[in-house]
Amino acid sequence: MAVKDFYRNGCARWRVFFQPQWQVLFFISCYIPFAVSQIRYSIPEEMSKGSLIGNVAQDLGLDLKRLRMGRARIVTGESTRYAELRTDKGILVVSERIDREQLCGDITPCSFSFEIILENPMELHQVTVEITDVNDNSPVFENNKISFEISESAALGSGFALERAYDSDVELNSLQNYILSRNDYFVLKQNSNPDGSKYVEMVLDKALDREKHPHLSLKLIAVDGGSPQRSGSVNIDVTVLDANDNAPVFNQTVYRASVMENSEKGTPLITVNATDADSGTNGQLLYSFSDIKEQFKDIFNIDGNTGQITVIGDVDFEKDKRFEIRVKAKDQGGLTSTSKLIIDVTDINDNAPAINVMSLSSPISEDSPPSTTIAIIHVKDADSGRNGQVMCSIDKNFPFSIKSSLSNYYNLITDAFLDRETQSEYNITVIATDSGSPALSSSTTLRLKVSDINDNAPVFDRNSYSTHILENNKPGLSIYSVTARDLDWNQNSILSYFLEDTQIGGEPISSYVSINSENGIIHAVRSFDYEQIKQLSFIPNDG
Ligand SMILES: *[C@@H]1O[C@H](CO)[C@@H](O)[C@H](O)[C@H]1NC(C)=O
């Protein structure tokens, strides 16, 4: 067998196998003249109809006349006639689209054969046409999407098997390589199965972070080795599943609120807020107070779901001016964080001044000089600031005044001399008022008695008394009764009556009348004689 090589179009390589042993057999009686040769052509698949396969006339060394006279034709057992013999030009052309993949699948080399027969004399030539692959198929993936759900806590080095691609072309035109689109987390690893087949997986190279990238979109690209190169791709969707890797974070390190004392129960104060980057229950927060003093628990409440802090008990500025509480947020995965909450209490004027009488001098003598101290008073107000500033006052019509000596101490003093006979007792109301708005006040009443001094002389109820007496009376007869009064009190007002020592007709008055020193009743001492004495004048004395 001789091999003759030549080139066509400067690029495709044509190989013609030439069978030179011409065996000429004649059809005389039992002899049949017979010549056999074999030619082999090679063409790429997918040539258009009418494309040249080869010049058989030339390659077999036959002229066109012989072809025509010998009624040259193709005989073939194969169902599809891919080639057509053009006897007018002595060439073989493509008569039908040739798909190498359809014809041979992945069997290589791929070819089909047929015979050309001529008569007179009979010749039989076998023609084999090899179909070479052209890169007319791209690698394809069965699905257009691969989905993964991967926990953000997946270990580095974890592998995730990827779907393989198929390319119907053969050899270099078939699948050669995989490429994973650029990304921060995965690298591609190609492995061989024991049977030699390849599989590909993506391997976690850097820890996932759902909070940064909850979804990743990658692309797996399969490329063949043809020229031009063809490729196919499949999208890879990675959903990163949450792991509880984030603690809650409060949006403030310190929260400040203020509350009016005596605020109504249910009064909202402030809402604390924390966020958790995790999702689902890992990000679901529950608020609470953390290490709160036992007594504060009854005053404030925190709503576990909303973080709102409300008043639930009595806020008393006088007891607590400031509360410092730690608030806590906890996710369902158990991670916690805390923040500080400062609640300042605003004073309201809810305390009236308290008055304490330290000392009281009662009774006080009516001859006490002005500015005598009667009482020392201490005032106290539990409120602060202006709410706790106290002023004391008393009734201006009284002869007293109240003056502050020390802070919160007051002296109640007399303004003038007192007169027990005018007013023997004072109910002095001391009013203490604070400077709050509205102001609160309280009062106390001091009962001050004025003690007597003997500063009033007795006074007869009349300037003069006169009466008549019948002569010849019995000695000892009560003639008259005089009465004097004394404004002073008690001992100072007990009176004794005397007669003023006078002479009547050379005799002392006491020889005519006497006076009962206790009750002022005047008695006759002797029997009077009208002819001797017609009138008697004397002066009683209230001693
Ligand atoms: C002072 O108060 C007392 C007790 O309330 C009362 O008995 C007294 O009469 C009052 N005195 C004066 C002078 O109002």
Account of the 3D structure:
- The chain folds into 5 domains: 5-132, Immunoglobulin-like, CATH 2.60.40; 135-243, Cadherins (Immunoglobulin-like); 250-346, Immunoglobulin-like (Sandwich), CATH 2.60.40; 354-451, Cadherins (Immunoglobulin-like); 459-542, Immunoglobulin-like (Sandwich), CATH 2.60.40.60.
- The protein has 3 helices and 44 strands.
- The strands form 15 sheets. A 4-stranded mixed β-sheet has the order 3-9-8-5. A 4-stranded mixed β-sheet has the order 11-18-17-14, with no helix packed on it. It has a 4-stranded mixed β-sheet with strand order 20-27-26-23, with no helix packed on it.
- The relative contact order is 0.06.
- The longest helix is centred in the first third of the chain and has 6 residues, at 64-69.
- The chain is mainly β.
- The protein is rod-shaped and about 230 Å long.
- Helix content is 3%, strand content 44%.
- The structure holds 2-acetamido-2-deoxy-beta-D-glucopyranose.
- 2-acetamido-2-deoxy-beta-D-glucopyranose binds next to strand 34.
